[in-house]
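Researcher: Here's the sequence for the chain we discussed earlier.
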Amino acid sequence: MRELELASVIHEPKGPLCYAVDARTLHIRLKTRKGDVSGVTLLAADPFNWRPSPETGIYEYATETMQRVEMKKEYVTRLHDCWFAEVTDIPWGRVKYGFVLHDGETSCFAGCHDFTPMGENGEPPADHSNYYMYPYILEEDLYKAPAWVKDTVWYQIFPDRFSRGGREDEAGLPEWGSEDADSYDRIYGGNLEGIVTRLDYIKELGASGIYFTPLFVSPSAHKYDTKDYFQIDPLFGTNEIFGTLVKEAHKRGIRVMLDAVFNHCGYEHPFWQDVLKNGRDSKYYDYFYIVDPERPIAPESQEGKFYGEHLNYRTFGFTEFMPKWNTANPEAREYLLSVAEFWVKEYGIDGWRLDVANEVSHEFWREFRKRVKVLNPDIYILGENWLNSNPWLLGDQFDAVMNYEFTTPAVRFFGTNLRNQEPYAPTEFMHAINELLIAYPKPVASSLFNLLDSHDTARILTLCGDNPDIAALAYVFQLTYAGSPSIYYGGEIGLGGDERHNRRCMPWKPEQQNRKLYETVRRLIALRQEHPSFREVDIEWLQADDDKRTLIYRKNAPSETLYVLIHHSAEPQSADVPEDWKGRSLTDLMTGETVDGDAPLKLGPYGFRLLLDRK
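Model: Thanks. This is the structure I predict for it:
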């Protein structure tokens, strides 16, 4: 075997490359340089299997007790091969382990410090300081998310723009759906009563969870500048109406998740106003971050704006009307935690989405989890983190994050209207998704909130060049991927918009809706609920053809195998049939037709096929 650089072999215990699934099971991964090795054997055993030598009486490790597990090449990325093994024979909850790398003729041992040769007869090295260790699997350290999350399809609603209802006086409100230069920030009058009247629509679509952007008192349309955390904004309704909404949603099997803005509050929040009025004499002074106590708290710049370097207090970004909470202050922390408890206890909400979650301390989120899980052990805790978030997903803070690391490759492959990005070819997309699949433990991947768009991005239809057939392909991939997918309101009926027009009013007139796209999305959601293969984490790629711009992948469940074919091109193509299809009859889930596994499959422009093989 040619000499390997230590940097070409990547492993770290207690993370996505080595994690406990339950009290007796470990998942172990190893990354090696792409094409570097032909196989990997995992050596694993209890670290305390020492016995006295019959000859010397000195304790020696009983190497014959080591399990030898051939690792599976799980995924291939642009730079790495990723190897995977499941270790189940762990009676005492602890494991020492290492890796044997093979290149077809020779082998070497890869440990936590160095590479060493194997013994003449294939014995593992005697230097036991070079083995990795998983010291002990403790039940209380296991990652546990609510079981219902992986079966949920979310529907995200921006309340001001979804539906008006019960308003006797609409004077002063703009025409529903009208647009001009100020429409992004304008209040249109969508409210909770309007949402209650549309719950049957959401149910018929197949969504089983609603994620609301903020509902609490605030002067803005978006409500991320909270003034009162304990009251529904009067423009949306009342706490009583919200209680009715939750009950009506629950009757329909729909869960409700609220948006908590605990990184910052609004400029009009009474605590902040007290600080502005009384300065260091305010009882709330230390609830916030004041940079220089000797300077005015809110000075104005020469341009009449307090912005950037002129700010004398911490904010979200440089947004002067969003002062940042100091959650290290015990009273401020207790105030925010009481908000979280109030809506769980009084109204029975099913989830909290946590805004700007990565800018709030881990200590605060650990306490947050304890407090809300006592009230509802099945509540879903979702952080708004845009990048890899393993430090928050160790079982002591969040159940999931908004998985924008899913959004990015999906948009780069399916999108045709991209700025500052080159679109992905099928192989590049496959490599990017593989990188994502190994970025998290599998139980975490089952609970991630996977979205194509949101109130913070351009809408998927616009990203797809306003082509609903391409947008449908993106939904096919999203809804055959693991985790907890989210549909941004209106996406299912072809509502588009760039970043400045992504919060448009929901069009309710049939002539304003793309019913073909709606029926496709509704059918995909129904199939996802019916077939467990759609929700499985593992993907087996069968084809990524850059010339034809075609993807074929397989997903296995105990009772069935799903084959997904996606053709991202305006030119019709025939897809070559994978070898294991031959001689089989598959069911086309979109049409109900039986498909001959021996014949090439025709794919129309921007077409897809979902084929099922029942075991």
